[in-house]
Amino acid sequence: MSDFEAARLTVRLGAIVSNFRTVQRMAGPAAVAGVVKADAYGMGMPAVARRLAEAGCDTYFVARLEEGVALRPVVPGARIFVLDGASPDAVPALISNRLTPVLNSLGEIASWSAAAREMGSTLDAVVHIDTGMNRLGLSAGELGVLAEAAKRLDGIRVVLWMSHLACADDPDSKMNRLQLDRFQTALAMLPPAPASLASSGGVLLGKDYAFDMVRPGLGLYGGNSQPTKPNPFATVALLHGRILQLRQIDKGESVGYGATFHAARPTVLAVAGLGYTDGLMRVLAGRGKGAIGGVRVPIAGRVSMDLITLDVTDVPEGKRRVGDPIEFFGDTITLDEIAAAAGTAPYEILTAMSRRVPHVYEDAA
Amino acid sequence: MSDFEAARLTVRLGAIVSNFRTVQRMAGPAAVAGVVKADAYGMGMPAVARRLAEAGCDTYFVARLEEGVALRPVVPGARIFVLDGASPDAVPALISNRLTPVLNSLGEIASWSAAAREMGSTLDAVVHIDTGMNRLGLSAGELGVLAEAAKRLDGIRVVLWMSHLACADDPDSKMNRLQLDRFQTALAMLPPAPASLASSGGVLLGKDYAFDMVRPGLGLYGGNSQPTKPNPFATVALLHGRILQLRQIDKGESVGYGATFHAARPTVLAVAGLGYTDGLMRVLAGRGKGAIGGVRVPIAGRVSMDLITLDVTDVPEGKRRVGDPIEFFGDTITLDEIAAAAGTAPYEILTAMSRRVPHVYEDAA
């Protein structure tokens, strides 16, 4: 295999550790769990989890059961919390892989309690209280039932009460204080155990929101979950495509599918080896940018499945050659910048990354 | 491992074969190559290529060198054409894996010719002539040079002259006829060899565009590349998520991140186990639909990374239970419908599919 790569995602593992430390400073003495669902936000779960474990992280969150099963051998001694919960047919795999479910309803509490009874032992669980997200978690009604009948928790050792903020990206939203109050009220009704409310956005809301554990995802990967403020996190992910071909076209010629780009002047085009199947969303056509040596260049015409064309006319000739890298996000173009161009959030920019793009890990921060 | 799955992509391999036969009928006697780049448009390259080979397909297109290397052991006897071409550092891997590059410039022709000379043998190649896409391929100027100096092809056996249509999705576009004329003019200037112009959209333009080989991608996977006309292809891909939790909320309550959905009536919500990291694009919020037993239900609030919430109030109670599947595309919701809701093309809906979603293969058409 040659070392030719049409595109490359560079992942700075050292920067992930540095972001982990930043969260420890901001949220301490609360513990910091690593959120590594969605293949560690597209960065590659095994490498990320291993490096976080070296840095002292002993608790991980995943979404799917299958993600927990894949993570178990990577961090054999750590706690793994599975957000999807414990549907009856998931119970055997949860137990055999020593995975701790996040129980989202009285029904899941009942099936986990029954599993403990059958085993004649005690099983750990996280219990998720909904405080206004209206997605997963015990509703206010279910919370009342549980508070009245703690017997429902027989055989279950609650290692964490958790909830999830809906509007943590907006520090001015009244939802934050409302959910904080509801969570504190819920905790007062329930048997004592550690508690967790904040993911990356919640960490930035301050220590009131930190409780005993915080659960950063986006922040670990360098994203800014409160776009109105400066980003406290170091850049982790850099996406580059190589120039496969340069092409000079005349004024008036069109480019790409649908011939949507028309050259307003004699134009030099660079074709780079990545496209929307690699995660450069199609919506970036006419709105997104690349960067060559720190200089931004516009995308010309539609984003293709495997290719993208840029107008590099304004880049000096010696600085644009076949084989040269073009950055799509990284040290020049932030995740916030490309997310704004795509009309989405930095989360989706990261998780859209395809496994087709080789992931190259660097130790440096 | 339990058979619990939060989401599932069903791939009907029999329908892929049936679509391959449809293209044979429409384009015959032209040969039909299988385009399996981008992990066979997200369907899983190994299973798809193996099944196409059983159906008689002996030529495949991929984009990246790495894709060709992965495909070689799957179809050991077939021709594999690599669209990215033959940059100098790709040459050794191309040769050792018996991959045929699509040469996109005089520079690539020179390096491939040099490789043949060094080996003292002849190497196969496809040569790509740009006829108006202005992406990859020999420009008009380069074509003129090549036509004057066939010696540049020394050591190269051209197995295909190819070009690519920019506007084949629009049968009324004048670009189609213009590119056809330019391609015929180019062929008349060059040494005789088989020729190819049409991918799925080109197939639908009629036999004038078929030449000796057509290269369907989207059509094989059931997509309609001319959305203004009925789709001649059978449905291949079906995406389902399971209901993880049902929740009753009051009038006025909000749902999800940013609290963007407000219930206008007492509302029943279903939370399904897939999100934008699985390929259900975030832009579908407020625009996309799911389907339960053939009945469409709207997405409520934002699409989360791992979860999606739907308003199932209007589905009869017995037909919405925890564990039930919700279709996001398939037999009820076409790729065109979800692509329109997402403001994109069906291509991106398919290639956005994540490997996190288990792929389940069915033989039926």
Structure report:
The structure is a homodimer of 365-residue chains. With 365 residues, chain A is α/β, with parallel strands linked by helices. Chain A is built from eleven helices and 19 strands. In chain A, the strands form five sheets. In chain A, strands 3-4-5-6-7-8-9 form a seven-stranded parallel sheet. In chain A, strand 12 and strand 13 form a beta hairpin. In chain A, helix 1 (13-27) crosses helix 3 (45-54). In chain A, 58% of the residues are buried. The mean pLDDT of chain A is 94. The interface between A and B is large, with 79 and 79 residues.
Features:
Lyase, Ornithine Decarboxylase, Chain A, domain 1; alpha/beta; six-stranded mixed beta sheet; homodimer; 19 strands; seven-stranded parallel beta sheet; 365 residues
Topology:
Two copies of one chain form a homodimer.
Chain A: E1 7-12, H1 13-27, E2 31-32, E3 34-35, H2 37-41, H3 45-54, E4 59-62, H4 65-71, E5 79-82, H5 91-96, E6 100-103, H6 106-119, E7 123-128, H7 140-148, E8 156-162, H8 174-189, E9 195-196, H9 200-204, E10 213-214, E11 237-249, E12 254-255, E13 261-262, E14 267-272, E15 289-292, E16 295-298, E17 308-311, E18 325-329, H10 335-342, H11 346-351, E19 359-362
Parallel strand pairs in A: 1-19, 2-10, 3-4, 4-5, 5-6, 6-7, 7-8, 8-9
Antiparallel strand pairs in A: 1-11, 11-14, 11-18, 12-13, 14-17, 15-16
Helix pairs in contact in A: 1-3
